From TrEMBL:
It comes from the Archaea. One of its GO terms (biological process) is L-serine biosynthetic process. It comes from Halococcus salifodinae DSM 8989. Transmembrane segments: none annotated. This is D-3-phosphoglycerate dehydrogenase. Residues 105-279 form the D-isomer specific 2-hydroxyacid dehydrogenase NAD-binding domain. Residues 3-309 form the D-isomer specific 2-hydroxyacid dehydrogenase catalytic domain. Belongs to the D-isomer specific 2-hydroxyacid dehydrogenase family. It catalyses: (2R)-3-phosphoglycerate + NAD(+) = 3-phosphooxypyruvate + NADH + H(+). The keyword Cell wall biogenesis/degradation does not apply.
């Protein structure tokens, strides 16, 4: 069988597929006609967030049995088109949860203590000690929007640092939140009480632009952290809210369009900290998701049950 891998995944995942006797072809940074040509005879396609798996791609890929997402979010895969084409879509929902939660904690500290801004100035020789008076997380309130795997892991870590926790998630129980020390509240209460608001929802029609002008106004004086998905927060409105508006700062890892364009308004605002979708980028997480998705491709080839399909 031919496995086409169009976004870089860790070598142990590729080795697992080769050791099972399959042909692994990598085609990174390939788009348009070249991508269509590469997928035409593929039996499996493995992606991260860099490949848009569209209806047109499914129409070309007549031999495809499974699309494996080496990570959590499947918003770059047209699920309806996959269903129509009879192709399994599977993800790796566990392997990068700790990495994403750790990046969220790092971004929270970066924003609350202006670490990248102070670092950049000291690197140019400026001792700007008196310009940075940070926010102490101990005793501050963390609002968590989306209390799934990553949101809960962030809650555990920041609870340990003495933050008060409130969470908004219409699909979980009060008991589940309370077990992790969080009070389950409506979105308006979450925004009003949070000093730091962190987003951990998938991107769906319901969450697209969930955080816009009114929501940022309600977060008055706070910080917004987004290590979930671009599109959940309106980027132009966010840039303005930090530059001249109600927010103290923001730290963003994910964008509506990736890679982020060099003319994004987010790049013009000093107190908007940005990283290039690094939430899952640890050695451990990448090995976990690569081997997990390889196992699922092998299961599909052997007509065994595919986990997380
Ligand atoms: P999950 O499915 O375990 O949790 C998502 C939670 O969001 C669920 O509890 C769900 O009930 C909740 N939710 C859904 N719609 C909602 C709404 N309208 N309002 C509030 N809550 C809502 O997913 P996860 O593993 O925790 O991942 C969370 C997000 O983080 C996903 O978007 C994932 O793609 C992203 N992610 C990003 C990185 C990165 O590299 N930056 C790494 C891992 C995960
Ligand atoms: C995910 O949803 O798992 C993330 O986007 C991680 C990634 O693959 O970069």
């Amino acid at each position: 069988m031919k496995v086409l891998v169009t976004d870089p995944i860790a070598e142990p995942g590729l080795d697992r597929l080769r050791e099972a006797g399959h042909t692994v072809e990598t085609a990174y940074d390939v788009t348009g006609d070249a991508l269509h040509a590469a997928v035409a005879d593929a039996n499996a396609l493995v992606v991260r967030s860099g490949t848009d798996v569209t209806e047109e791609l499914f129409a070309t890929a007549e031999e495809l049995v499974i699309v494996g997402r080496a990570g959590i979010g499947v918003d770059n895969i047209d699920i309806d088109a996959a269903t129509e084409a009879g192709v399994i879509v599977a993800n790796a929902p566990e392997g990068n949860v700790r990495a994403a939660a750790e990046h969220t904690v790092a971004m929270t500290f970066a924003a609350a203590r202006s670490i990248p801004q102070a670092h950049a100035r000291l690197k140019t020789g400026e001792w700007a000690k008196s310009d940075y008076l940070g926010t102490e997380l101990n005793g501050a309130t963390l609002g968590i929007v989306g209390f799934g795997r990553v949101g809960q892991e962030v809650a555990k870590k920041l609870d340990g640092l003495g933050m008060n926790l409130v969470a908004y998630d219409p699909y979980i129980s009060e008991e589940r939140a309370a077990n992790l020390g969080a009070e389950l509240v409506e979105l308006d209460e979450c925004l009003a009480s949070a000093d730091v608001l962190t987003l951990h929802t998938p991107l769906t029609p319901e969450t697209e632009n969930l955080i816009a002008e009114d929501e940022l106004a309600a977060l008055d004086g706070g910080y917004l952290i987004n290590c979930a998905r671009g599109g959940v927060v309106d980027e132009a409105v966010l840039a303005a809210a930090v530059e001249d508006g109600p927010l103290a700062g923001a730290a963003i890892d994910v964008y509506a369009e990736e890679p982020l364009s060099s003319d994004s308004p987010l790049l013009d605002v000093e107190d908007v900290i940005v990283t290039p979708h690094l939430g899952a980028s640890t050695h451990a997480a990448q090995e976990n998701v690569a081997t997990s998705i390889a196992d699922q491709v092998l299961a599909a080839f052997e007509s065994k049950p595919v986990m997380n399909a």
